[in-house]
Write a structure and sequence with these properties.
2 copies of one chain form a homodimer.
Chain A lengths: L4 H14 L5 E2 L15 E6 L4 E5 L5 E2 L4 H21 L27 H10 L5 H16 L7 H10 L1 H12 L7 H12 L2 E2 L1 H12 L14 H14 L5 H7 L4 E3 L4 E6 L3 E6 L2 E2 L6 H14 L14 E6 L7 E2 L2 H8 L5 E10 L1 H12 L7 E12 L1 H16 L3 E5 L5 H11 L9 E2 L2 H13 L1 H4 L16 H10 L1 E5 L4 E3 L7 E7 L2 E6 L5 E7 L4 E2 L1 H6 L6 E4 L3 E7 H10 L1 H29 L2
Parallel strand pairs in A: 11-20, 12-13, 13-14, 14-15
Antiparallel strand pairs in A: 1-9, 2-3, 2-8, 4-5, 6-7, 7-8, 10-12, 16-23, 17-22, 18-21, 18-23, 19-20, 19-22
Helix pairs in contact in A: 1-11, 2-3, 2-9, 3-6, 3-7, 4-7, 5-7, 6-7, 13-14, 14-15, 20-21
């Protein structure tokens, strides 16, 4: 297959920006001056784990300040938001990365992205010893990247030897009791944390993990609890680019973090992570080509996180009435007529995507705004990816509102959303569990609603042989002739009438009880494809087409049938051609009606 | 219908927070102390114009600093981003709202949300006179709110009389040449701008307009050009809440702006605007209940703008092969067989929602990653809401890549996306316009692909009467007997064979040319519902059901048909019962095949 235009695009951007040699290598740590000014890599990783990369995307470099927001996330997990907030603020300072920036009275660092806040953060990481505390930090980044990482020993030693300013900050934090222990081993861990080696692709993966709600897209591991993802992204958005934060939001609009190693990680929540690397830095300590690449990507690909059209999408995939949609059940004419006038009292909403307040609000508005008298509301969740807590609560409130007003609300396809089911059942309490009505899919939910309309009893009352659907329009003598060919037979509940693949040996007419047709899915599961009520025929397709049975027919409860052997059905051509003709015409009418209802459903689905 | 749970929810929040009487009325403008400390309103407006409101949501108050980002948007429209940026920065200061905060050498205000930046912004609004300049500002807010607004004259005079600090800032800006004219009338306009009266509902509507990409949701008016919406939201996100900005992003996570009148406007891009009002302020000049309400709404409704699950949704609604989907064309058996083995070489992707880089990337990946030999790719855009510039470019690149590799890529349903069509055609240039292949919908696109596989000529070659589909399995003598009842007839191109509603007087067998069935839509438009190729029958449904014609039948090119009058078809029951039986059986087989293919398509669509 041809190249991906995405790959072509990042290669073009890379070629275009590689020529810019402005900026200088970081010199505040002697080791960093050994970098090659030509190095330049770009990588994009999507929230589902696809990666596009170009240039020196596999060149290792030290993570430096890019480590800060992620260790902050670890501290949040260790202590909770409240405790961490008491130690470290979240307010941007407009100052440079290495400014000391402590609040005047408390000594609390303004935010976790300046060195003071980051050192305090490293001090918050729990562990029995300083060594295990560092191992937790290294392990954190390994889980974000989904690969083994190591520390650049030379950079670490260089930082440790020359980091006087950071040592000063550490002691100042100890002075203010922000650090409540000897700052020296914490500073060593901080220097080692900054010296972890990553590459561009790793950064993109770290970003994609945040974009994916804290779950590493390739390994599937939950690296950061979902509730803290927003917090980490928030400090990146407000303080991630030091005194360039405002302009960064304005021009690039992606929560991001840069490091003096030359790396930048940026995140478009829900969608992707970007890793760029080039060691030539500007005055603020940000990678020159890195910033340019991020600006270009954001502009060309419309990635600004406040871009509104991207985030809009309809929650309602289809809205149908009971008259539009088909169930799996074959009902006799009387029931079809009873329902035809009332199909509009059933409304079916097929929802899709991630349900949250804004999307569910439109659903509530639509459901509550219906003009026609509605008695049943089916919410089909079969295509919903996730239901957040606010969406769960609003859907539950809707259920209660509708039930109190005398309506019935039915869910379908909610099986993957166990938390939502639990929420509803626990809030309903033991006395009202029956208000939680759930079916496998919307067709089954609709069938239940129809049965409610017909009344449980009426929905499967017996049919006398003379009233059989396929004998409609027959004269009494013709009926008698056909019925004479049929043999009554009964089946116990759960008994198999015929099996998928059997030769077609007869046509069946159901006179009492309920039967259903099931097929075997490739997964080995049985799926019900049709249900039959007294008065209708089954097994006619294989007879018409002279093909093996396409489904297994099972009696749901005890059933009575009339069985017309295939040779007698064929023999009618000789013995009673007029009867056979009428049977064929009635079969054609059934198929023709079926085609019309299928067309009506298809039209409703494409509205 | 019952109450909306959304309305119930905001009423509950309102009742809960109304009891908090902490904070104080603003006193820096004497007039503001006349406010009633009990006032408290909440309103939410969605990006499609629904409003929920409670409490004192209609109580007018002065807009104050909330005006700043919107006038900044007007300045961006008047001068462009570059010129405005040279006058006013976008960097948060961490300082209080009334700090002078000018860059030390240039005197450039740090950002447009502090008073210095806002006064400079007001100075940038164009107009012949200071009066027309103010009218443009007032008109701007009227267009955002969709209603008439006025200025609170008393507050304006009070501000004008006591605004010494702002006057100092104005003269300082003049000193640095940021303002290049007499600052006094600009200051008057700034005081008047701050004294515009709005209510909570207005603020929610202003927010909803930004959430809706700059288009007022109710009036449909484009109030702010889409390209500047991100810029306005960016300065709100980074500097909208003064020295509370970092904590606001961390805790609430919505671009927002507060004013000392007691109002706060907050925006969830793509979804909604929030307006809250309560005149009791905290030390930073933000409404106490307003902040609490926003925090509760954000937390309870999961509105944080960096919340990732909300923004994810699949771009591909359905993926099908040519073997799964049905066209509108009825083909003879030979063509069906030729296609049945090759249906998998056609892939159909039905896309949905707003197409942007992240969503289109998944489409490219899917299309380019197909394993089976694919020759035709159909992208159906019928359910796409919008295509941004990056998505347009990537889709175009995909078209070029696939064409160069010998594939054909076909679009359908792109009619509402004229800009995308223009983009493709202009980038194809005059010589390659034929690479832009577009059809009304995916079924028509599929039909074209099938015709390509069959070869244009083969797809509509003549059929000899003996090979007609419905005569399959007939003995020669039976064929002769039926053919003897038929009359040859011809139709010119575009001639009508029969009309919707006509009585069914005959069955037709097409032997050459192409015909199609059309229905009249309620809109008055004609829609093609079926197409016929030589060898197939048409008009049989009405004959079977003895009902009026359900569609109008039109010869597309010159057609030859055989016509079997309905009385002869019925008469067969007497004269040739065996032939009539066989015809009915063949009709049953056609309908049965049709049902199977409909079931297959439905199964594929529900996969």
């Amino acid at each position: 297959m041809p190249n991906s235009p995405v790959q072509d695009y990042i290669e073009a951007i890379h070629a275009e920006l590689a020529g810019d040699n402005s900026g200088a290598l970081a010199d505040y740590i002697p080791e960093l001056t050994h970098a090659d000014p030509e190095w330049f890599g770009i990588a994009i990783a999507t929230a589902d784990g696809a990666v596009y990369e170009t240039g020196h995307s596999r060149q290792p470099f030290t993570i430096q300040s890019i480590s800060k927001p992620f260790v902050y996330g670890l501290a949040l997990e260790d202590h909770g938001r409240g405790d961490v907030f008491r130690k470290i603020g979240v307010e941007p300072t407009g100052d440079a990365f290495n400014s000391i920036s402590l609040e005047s009275r408390s000594g609390r660092p303004f935010n976790p992205m300046i060195n003071a806040g980051a050192i305090a953060t490293t001090g918050l990481v729990l562990g029995r010893s300083h060594e295990t505390r560092f191992q937790r930090i290294l392990d954190l980044f390994q889980r974000y990247c989904g690969s083994a990482l190591s520390v650049d020993q030379a950079v670490y030693e260089s930082e440790s030897r020359t980091g006087h300013r950071n040592r000063a900050i550490g002691h100042m934090l100890r002075n203010f009791n922000v650090l409540q222990e000897n700052p020296r081993p914490i500073l060593e861990n901080y220097f080692r944390q900054c010296s972890i080696l990553v590459n561009c692709r790793d950064l993109a993966m770290i970003g994609a993990t945040l974009a994916n709600g804290g779950v590493q897209p390739v390994t599937g591991e939950a690296v950061l609890r979902g509730e803290y993802v927003e917090s980490v992204l928030s400090v990146m958005a407000s303080c991630g680019m030091y005194d360039f934060a405002g302009e960064w939001i304005y021009r690039v609009g992606l929560p991001a973090k840069s490091g003096v190693g030359g790396g930048i990680v940026a995140v478009l929540p829900g969608h992707l992570g970007i890793g760029v690397f080039s060691p030539l830095l500007d005055d603020r300590g940000n990678s020159v080509r890195g910033i340019q690449a991020c600006q270009r990507l954001s502009l060309d690909l419309n990635l600004h996180f406040l871009n509104s059209p991207r985030s809009r999408r309809p929650a309602i995939r289809h809205r149908l009435t009971g008259a539009d949609m088909r169930t799996r059940v074959q009902r006799p004419a009387r029931q079809r007529e009873a329902l035809s006038a009332l199909g509009n009292t059933i409304r079916i909403y097929e929802l899709q995507g991630s349900l949250s307040f804004p999307t569910v609000e439109t659903v509530l508005r639509e459901v509550l705004g219906e003009g026609f008298p509605v008695h049943f509301v089916i919410l089909d969740l079969g295509r919903v990816c996730s239901i957040d807590t606010s969406a769960a609560r609003l859907l539950f409130d809707l259920l209660i509102q509708l039930c109190s007003a005398g309506f019935r609300m039915v869910f379908s396809g909610a099986r993957p959303h166990a938390a939502f089911r639990r929420y509803c059942l626990s809030h309903l309490g033991p006395e009202r569990q029956d208000l939680w009505l759930h079916f496998c899919d919307a067709r089954d939910a609709l069938e239940w609603c129809e049965d409610q309309i017909l009344g449980e009893a009426a929905s499967c009352e017996e049919c006398s042989p003379g009233d059989l659907e396929l004998l409609a329009g027959f004269q009494d003598s013709e009926k008698a002739a056909v019925l004479a060919l049929m043999r009554a037979c009964t089946f116990d509940a759960a008994e198999t009438v015929f099996r998928e693949g059997d030769p077609a040996d007869a046509l069946f007419f159901l006179t009492s009880g309920r039967a259903e047709a099931r097929i075997l899915l490739p997964s080995g599961e049985q799926q019900t494809v049709a249900r039959f009520r007294p008065g209708v025929a089954f097994g006619e397709m294989a007879v018409i087409e002279d093909a093996p049975r396409s489904a297994t027919l099972v009696a749901v409860d005890a059933c009575s049938c009339l069985r017309l052997p295939i040779e007698d059905f064929r023999g009618l051509a000789e013995t009673h051609p007029a009867i056979r003709m009428r049977l064929l015409e009635n079969l054609l009418a059934v198929l023709s009606r079926d085609r019309r209802s299928a067309n009506r459903e298809a039209a409703a689905l494409h509205r």
